[in-house]
Amino acid sequence: MELRALPSSPFPMRGAPGIQQDPVCPLQTYQIHTGLQHSIIRPTQPNCLPLDNVTLPQKLKEVGYSTHMVGKWHLGFYRRECMPTQRGFDSFFGSLLGSGDYYTHFKCDSPGICGYDLYENDNAAWDHDNGIYSTQMYTQKVQQILASHNPRKPIFLYIAYQAVHSPLQAPGRYFEHYRSINNINRRRYAAMLACLDEAINNVTLALRKYGYYENSIIIYSSDNGGQPMAGGSNWPLRGSKGTYWEGGIRAVGFVHSPLLKNKGSVCKELVHITDWFPTLITLAEGQIDEDIQLDGYDVWETISEGRRSPRVDILHNIDPIYTKAKNGSWAAGYGIWNTAIQSAIRVNHWKLLTGNPGYSDWVPPQAFSNAGPNRWHNERVSWSAGKTVWLFNITADPYERVDLSARHPEVVKQLLRRLSQFNKTAVPVRYPPKDPRSNPKLNGGVWGPWFKEDEKKKKSGKSKGANKQKKSKNKKKGNQKKGQSFHCRSRLAGG
Hints:
16 strands; disordered C terminus; four-stranded antiparallel sheet; alpha+beta
């Protein structure tokens, strides 16, 4: 069987019945195993998805797939080796950063640090700068790829639309049906989403037109919860994007395919983003070495046939450098865990949060009745001073209204121990300071790779005069780290 996988976002199907993501921008392994467990990759940071992390397109290429990416990359680009075409994609058309203008494709990271951000493969796509709204432009590119590919040969197409994300922009005709929405941000958001819906329809029609549909799998998902201050709404869930509350990590999504056995069903089992890696490779008849331990599981039977998920837990994240909770302590964590650290974990029906969980309000629809979200309409939570642990039965209480940590201390201890076990496998956080060489002014006005290999060699040459004994020790340490990274990458490769 030839499989054509068309994810519009390679993210997880999870929840009851929602999807749970990482709080900002999902990766394909647990963040603690990539070093990217804090915040996002900033445009000016010399950072990217570790080069020893095997990606899903790399594995699919091994079994004959053509691999193409259209849309937002946002996994780092300071070196050419970090670019999408070096990480498994035969072609790339889209943006490198996390956001930007939908028409001009310019992005300012800070005053005076601005540049162009539209690429075709490894070069700035100036020829495509025709003022076309990005959602429509990306769809046109997808149609071109499908039209030129042989439908009898397998293809993996990853479409990461820019929408819906700030800045809130949409073509004028999409506002026509939403004039009754008074709140301008909600109105713009609705227009952007209408355009996105049309784009997904056009991609599906292209699959049918060019002969792919009957043997295709379409995976659609949002990447994280909405941002109420920018038109998003997570009601009745708690919190927002950037938090570990369900409003930050539970989103909408579906899997659509003629290959599904149970069509029209709702998956309420635990499924995480790391599961796509083994699931899709297995469907594509690829190879995963038996000695490799993955974070993910093959969940195709869970999705297609309604069987129980092999997964029993999900590490949402552990961020050791996020703002510490002032009153957190080892004592509050029963000597098992320092509750000052921001973390969240799900085990079966239970969800535990520690540290500073972030914006914690519920934002109901009436909060958007005027120009912007009105905090007076929000349901604000008051808890006793010093609280740094929360426990919820997330199946019975997906809105996180009833904290059960005081009622079930043994469950709290159990989940804290699981957090501690995960933390022992974590790699150091990769969050370097900004590099002034990243300024687009130094790169022809374009955001793009700035780290030059010859500069690395020069630095290496300077270090050659260092103490030989120190050099020998460093070399041994370096070899050990390399071996550990390879084991971690092999075990946790999530695509």
